[in-house]
Each structure stands twice: as C-alpha cells, then as structure tokens.
Design brief:
Blueprint lengths: L3 E4 L4 H5 L8 H8 L3 E5 L8 H13 L3 E5 L11 H21 L4 E3 L9 H21 L7 E3 L11 H8 L8 E3 H7 L7 H15 L1 H5 L2 E4 L2 E4 L2 E5 L11 H10 L5 E4 L5 H20 L1
Parallel strand pairs: 1-10, 2-3, 3-4, 4-5, 6-7, 7-10
Antiparallel strand pairs: 8-9
Helix pairs in contact: 3-4, 4-5, 6-8, 8-10, 10-11
Length: about 290
C-alpha cells in the first residue's frame, strides 16, 4: 500500500455540496483524489454496528483507508477510579467500532498528566493501557491497533518519547505522530528538514524501520503560545508552521508510505490535497 492522504472528519465543503451522511464520505473523497479518512468519535462513540459496517464497505469499495479518532475524554494517567473506568469504556467502544468498520488504528490522546507527578502519571497510564488491551482481547478485539497521539502542550502526556514508550508495551500499540502538535509543544520546534529527520530517526531507533515506513501522521498548520497549542489553522491563513515540504522530502528520500491525515480547521480536505500535490512535486523533482 502506497502513501495515503485524507481528512480528519467531514469538512464544510462536503456538507456544502448537499451531503449529510459519513457513509457518503469514501466515494466523495475518492472523487476529490484522496484515499484516507479518519472517522471522528471525539465527542463519544455513537455509531452503531450496521452503520459502521456500511462505512467500512464503502471505504473498501472506494479504496479509502479508515482510522478512528477516539473520544477526547480519555485520561490514561488518572488516579480517579471513575475516570479510569470511563477511559476504558471510551477506548473499548472505539476499538469495537474500528472492528466493525475494518478501521486501523484507533487514535487517542493519552490525556493530562504533566507537572511534578508526571512519572507516576505515566506509570499509571501504561498500566491502564495494558488493562484495556487485555479486555480488548477478551472481547474479540485483539487484532485492533491503538495509537497514542503526540500532544500539543507540554502539560499533557504525549511527548514523542512518551508515545514511543507506550508503543514498546505491545505490538498493537503504534504511534500517531502529529507534527503540528510536536511543533506547538516545542514552541516552533520543527524549523528544518533536520528537525523532522530527528523525529523520524528517534521513532526508528525505538520501534524499527517498519514503524517509520507505515507511520500514521497528522499534519496541519498550527498556532501556539508559550504553553503550546492554541488552535489548528489552515494553509490559507499563511505564516503558520510546520512546513510540509521538509517532511515530504524525507518521505521521498526514505521511500516511506505513511498515512497523512490533515486536521486543518474546516479545510482538512483542501489542505490535504495541497499536501498531496507538494509530495507529488517533490517526488517528481527527485526522480527527474
């Protein structure tokens, strides 16, 4: 499977053309020239089995790969028993929906956990994630991969090293690398091709070449403050990093085949197409 580009969720342009159902997204995306779709469950998993299976069928018919973004309410590092159970529920429900759809991976934010007790929060988070994976196995969801996402604020669990630490727990845990979040958490850290190469090299050193080759990526322009991420922006806004060209060159040089999900605010399809064109231009230049 080659490189894939697509949006997170349904953009305004989809609805502006008269579409209402996510079941129409795969065919619509194919018509746009995209081949990936991250279904959004960020406010809770509300999709039923029949609809999820239909979405999976539509995706397969149109050559669109599916992933799922689990609810924002996940807090793996919590010491609150109630929040622990809710975190398990949210992840397992998302994994169940992923199984119905044939989607992979289930992307999630590890949650809060910075401050003086960060190491303790990380230890709790790893323990709870292993509990979720064991429960998933019992539920027949043992083949579903989950992907902790790099965080946009230093106060949140989800630095690159923390995400990689989660991934060493079990082969079913894979990284979701949001380069916008890394850029924001590092207060503009990704300024050169070398900066991006350092990220890819760190992933390879911990998880191996195959993990980098098939990386699940989120990309968009982002606005940040001293505390990290403020909000996702668009390429139309101008002046907001990180610059996709640096990553595109590395993808071409290293012959990587990632899935790149665009999270630009309300222009996730339009910007995904621009990223795709940038990649194609870089590839043509390298081959020419």
């Amino acid at each position: 499977m080659g490189i894939r580009f697509g949006p997170a969720g349904n953009p305004p342009s989809f609805h502006a053309q008269g579409y209402k159902s996510s079941l129409d997204m795969p065919a619509w995306l194919r018509g746009q020239g995209l081949n990936a779709y991250e279904y959004q469950c960020v406010r809770g998993v509300h999709i039923g089995e029949a609809t999820a299976r239909k979405l999976g069928e539509q995706a397969r018919e149109n050559g669109v790969s599916l992933s799922i973004h689990a609810p924002y309410y996940i807090t793996l590092g919590t010491d609150d028993p109630v929040l622990k159970e809710k975190t398990k529920m949210h992840l397992l429900r998302a994994m169940q929906a992923a199984m119905w759809m044939g989607a992979s991976p289930v992307v999630f934010h590890p949650g809060t956990g910075g401050g003086k007790e960060r190491a303790a929060a990380m230890a709790r988070a790893k323990k709870l994630l292993l509990e979720v994976l064991a429960l998933a196995e019992d539920m027949g969801l043992g083949e579903i991969r989950v992907a902790p996402e790099t965080a946009g604020k230093p106060a949140q669990l989800g630095s690159l090293d923390e995400v990689l630490e989660f991934c060493t727990l079990d082969p079913r845990v894979v990284p979701a690398v949001d380069f916008a979040h890394l850029h924001a958490a590092g207060r503009g850290a990704l300024k050169s091709m070398e900066d991006f190469a350092i990220v890819l090299d760190r992933i390879e050193s911990r998880l191996g070449k195959e993990a980098v080759r098939k990386l699940h990526i989120h990309f968009s322009p982002i606005e940040f403050t001293g505390a990290g991420e403020r909000r996702h922006r668009t390429l139309l806004d101008g002046g907001f990093g990180p610059d996709f060209r640096f990553l595109a060159r590395l993808i071409v040089e290293r012959k990587l085949t990632p899935t790149i999900i665009c999270e630009s605010a309300d222009r996730q399809v339009e910007d995904a197409l621009i990223y795709k064109r940038i990649y194609e231009q870089v590839k043509e230049e390298a081959e020419g």
